[in-house]
Batch of 2 targets.
Target 1
Amino acid sequence: MNTPFESRLISTIKAILLSIAMTIALWTQTSPTAQIAAVALTLCGAILGRVLAAKELKLSIAIGVIWLGFLMAFIGPEWVRNTSALPFLDARNTLIFSDCVGFGLLGLTMAFGLRYLSCRWRAWSVFEAAVVVGSVIWLFRQHQNERIDRPRFLADWALMQGYDPTSIIMIIGAVVGGVAMGMVLYQQSVRKLALSVILLGALGYWYSWDQQDTPDFCEESCLDQTRLFKADCLASGEDESTCERQAEEKEDACIQKCEDQGGQGEDSQGQGKEPGEPGTPGAPGSGGGVTDQMMRNESNSSTNDPVAVAIFHQDYEPPNDILYFRQQVLSLYDGKRLSIDTVNEFDEDVIREFPYRSSIQAGENLSEDFHLPIHTSMYLMADHPQPVALTSSVEITPTKNPAPHKFLTAYDVVSWVSATPIHDMRLLGRASIPSDWTKEKADHYLAYADDPRYESLSNELVRDIDPRYADDTLVKALKIKTYLEKEGFYTRKERHAGVDDSTASFLFGNLKGYCVHFANAAAHLFRSQGIASRVAVGYAVQGRLRGNGSAVLIMADRAHAWPEIHIEGVGWVPFDIYPERSDEPPGDIVPQDLESLLGEIARGDLSGGRADEAIETPFEMPWTRIQTFLIVLCILLLGMAYFVKGWRKVRGLFGSHRTVLTYVALQDSLNGRGLGRWYGETRDQHALRIRDIVPSLTPLTEAHLRRQIGGRMEHDDDFFALCTDVRRELRTNLPLWKTILGMINPIGWWYTK
Amino acid sequence: MAPQKIRDALQRTREIFPLTASGLLLGGLLYLASTYLGDGEKDYIARNAVDAMALIAAASGMATLLASGALFFLITRMNSGTSGGQWETGERHSTGFSLPSLAWWPLVQMSLKWTLPSAEVDLVTSRKGVEEWVRFSQRGRHRHIARAITVRGLFGLFAITLRKSFRCDYRVVPTRSGLSVTPELMMADGDGLGHPEGEPVGDLVETRRYAPGDPIRLVLWKAYARSRRLLVRDHESAVSVLPSATAYFLCGPDDEPSATTARTILESGVLGDDLSFGADGTNRVSKNAAGALEAIIDSVHHREAGGRGLAGFMDSVDRSKLRRCLFFVPPVPGPWLDSLRAVIQNMPGSPVIFITVQGRLDGAKGAFSLFERRSEKQSHDVVGLFQELQGLGGTIQVVHHDEGRTLSVSELKAMST
């Protein structure tokens, strides 16, 4: 009979862990009775699996039993619910009993199968670990996609205490990972296991400490800015080495500024969170921004993480019930498509940098006749290359980040939002390009693909405009917009990928595409008619999909691209296309609990409105205190060890058992120098073994044994003389480093038997 | 052979490739969990569990690499540490070889095995480190010990095996067993049956088997009632003492118990002083127990061609001695069976054939045995072999290696089922 490779202790631990995993998995799934039955049967299955593997049960039989068990687990509950053979059970008890049968058999079979297979093939232990982790993932699955208000049993409690639920979940995850590794343990001695656990604990502590030292958001932004600066510099025709040097200077200055700011308390500037850090809401770039990213978000409807929270400081109802949060604009036609104007020559109305100390203002003023100033505060939860703000932002000011563990950055925004709908008569009769624009600027906003089809199509579209408005910017734009809305088909399935000009492919092809295609097509057609236009990228939040509070939660799936046109005397106006036909379902309603919760956190209540009184100071693990405590503890233990060592050394100088105590002190010295007794070795054998180094130990040991067992006893002075000889021999016959090590060694006495 | 070389190369590669099957599987699962749950669904449990597990696995892998590096450094500077000599199969011996125990080296563990020759190795912890104790499963004569030292991570995710061959002259002899069986050999001429351990003269029984023409009044009816053999009282005829025997050791798979039995019987002296012993692979006739033992040891390399030397041996032995012939045969049929069949047909007397088996005697007693995996040794059809040998006309004695006694047919059947 082959013995399974696991010891009984490890097998027992694994059986218990599997039972706990079953408990966790069923925590919210069924009644307590069924849970107890399932857990008990899981434990039985685990024990049975190990025992039968030890008894060399045939694999074919085991596989058959496992299949049968799973089959019964699915059929059994159904049979219990439908049978008339159990008349003594009422409806409620029938359901409970069917759960007992179903979950019990499931647990029994799963535990039996896993334990049997992992006892025969070690690799199966990995699946046992997966079951342990999987059960916890299942229990806490509601928190996925940044739902920090879920699961309620944890989130509500944590928030009321002022803890960050995400941090708690992260700690749980790490602990579960560590425990799950126990499932792949090999037969092991307790000493080595303890040693390994201590080492891994120290490693984990170092790792978590090290994670806190990663570059912060401010520094990351500096790097981005430097890259942009270098690109601008090179584009302006400067020498590469000059650009390199200037970029480095700029980066150094920026990082220095970040460090200064950090020293003053980076939270006050709202930059206390590292992008990409585990637990950071949203992976880098998840907020979209550039077209490709936007397309990715558009094509992936499952991306539904919160990316930002906007707090409105005054009431505002957008004219078409859509809030546009703009991040970037694509205005430069680079020969293939519209892209970001990296030279930063135009688009002065767009704020491109995050504010760090002082406010940043847009370079172009908008008309007060057509716009309203709206004050908002933005709290970003995902990394964005440029600040997201309600369009059109004219001033961005840094503000306090109330929850650095939750928000990457925070800033106040003043936006001049459109106060008039696009069909307002006051917008009629205005040119697109103001007279004060330079030719370069006009050309910049009118450049489009060198393809006559654009102009041909747009001419065809505006041909039947009332002659009174034939040259009117707004009417022409509306005509184009109407055409795209009527003829276009909104779908995420058509990507127009792999072609040189995806806009042409969309516009002159099947007219099927998503917002990026519509926005680019519209911009091209506008430009072909002499209307200055560009594509804005950001988020469009529909009023009907959100709650009624002043907080607006922006989800990643709200990423959007829309065209903007310029009207003289008005400024840039969002001119979004709303296709009439679509195969996309309506967007998900924003989780209002989460919106409200994040709104409260953004306002400074870290309990998210759960606690009776607002909690403004987040709970933080007292790592420094723990560290200090551990250091003090180590010092105390070390001190105690040295004290005991010293005491054992000197106690032979006085007292009634001087000879014995002196002999013991000598044994301590030998142990400290690595010359102690081996396990199972007698004192005689020990003395004989090291007689080359300490020849006097043999007569001393004999004298000691005679004193202990009985026999002729030397005079005490002779005994102490032998002790002195031993000490002398130790000093002379051992290398100095061993003597020094023996003196330093605080626990040599521990091994004296 | 090319496939064998490829297999060996793959084996060597696998041994130095640090990730085990468990490690690869865990790595794959961690990647999937990280990609689809950690990043895809923003699941912090999955993300941090993966981080923790990856960190532990990485620490374990690093410790394994460092420990194996240190051991490799040490082993390349080691000599055998094993003094040569003689060891016995089935017994546990200390070889004197020791290694650092790695007891204070966290996250790793060490194991040692012999790849050549095959032996079961135990590592016993002592203050010097770990000492090597071995138990040999087969006899042989060797000049090297090939050791494979495996440093394995605590969680079994990483393992590196280092091989080194040490020069060491030694031989492994079959051990003596506690056999309480004697061969049913006729140690005297005529029909009389002498006790094999008795004195050759004076212990004679004055009876012989009934032969056609014998007067019916001479039949020993009481003896017939006891033994179902027709014996007749014989007159005081002259009896020639035959204190000698011929024995041959046939090799084959699983012949180690048979070798143990052969050694025990040879050294017990029951085969007499005038011994003629042969074994497969040795073309000489051994005349004493010591020479016979050497022949048995050397025969280990001829298992594939068991029985090849039998005919030659029989030709070289005085034919008069073949009336008291003993064969030690393996419990597994093989080429030796044909050789034995051919020889027995031409033998003047009826030989005694010893089959030595080992395994559980209570194999078929529990109902659970129907569902058990059966080891290769137990799966041999010993009963079939027994019946086949019986058909050849010999006296078959099936001996159990561990029990040291003859098995009845029913016990043999129970063992085989």
Target 2
Amino acid sequence: MNPVPVLRLLGLASLGLFLAVAFSPLPNAATRLLREPARLNPADAIVVLGGNLLGGGTLDESSLRRAVHGILLRQRGLAPLLVFSGQTFPEGPTEATVRARLARDLGIPPETILPVAGAHTTREEAARVGAALRPRGIRRILLVTDSQHLMRAGRLFENVGFEVLGAPVDDLPSDASNPGERLQLARRAVGEALARLYYRIAGYL
Amino acid sequence: MTQILLVTLLGFTSAGAYLVGARHLGLSRRGLRAAAGKVIETLGTTVVFAGINLGLGLAIALGARTLTGTFVSTYLLADPAWLLLSLLQGLTFQWWRECR
């Protein structure tokens, strides 16, 4: 069998897809379909989901942005408790403790900060935060993550018994106007769509 | 603005390359069409490698979690390096086919 026609078809399709993604508002529309809106109302706790912790205990941009958003919501008095989730590594500080330290340095009283470490996935975050907060009688939470992730994360936290108010924060504009931003938006949209599909198949959603 | 600049820049350099090729190197239009076809074919080969790499990567990450309990992050596949490496694989395989 001659693979050339198939390869050329694949190549044309991928080139067409690249041009459509990079030079049209298609990724913006896809992102809008996946986004959850903000519902910034008073709650029992603010829960900030993890991003990534780089070498040397440095928060990556997504993690830092979420942490700062959670801190600002706490400073606005929307909830009395600020919960940080995040990744744990065999050595060094956890993402949650690095964020907790940042919150203390920015003036949040330490007794109102709760780091919850040990989760590797959103589902694990929901389970661990649920185990930490339900005994305290906490039911309504402001959930801080990016707007595409919020739909899946919100469902998982609802599954463990919380009423979830979305508090999204993004490091990419939803109305991206240059090819680089659109490609990043598209990559995230595809990643989130695949994650939702996996969670549906696995029965987590 | 960035978009217009990018397209304009690429338009200029592509037109310049065509002029250099056609007028100074004696390259033909038919040769350009054939080259474009080979580029598309190489893209297709790259897509095949990228698909295999992505599928295998996901299978390994999810399989390791399920079978061994060891957490392997699927966000490793968000690193753009694997796309560039897939392009290298595609180029190498394509040239290998050409040199047969």
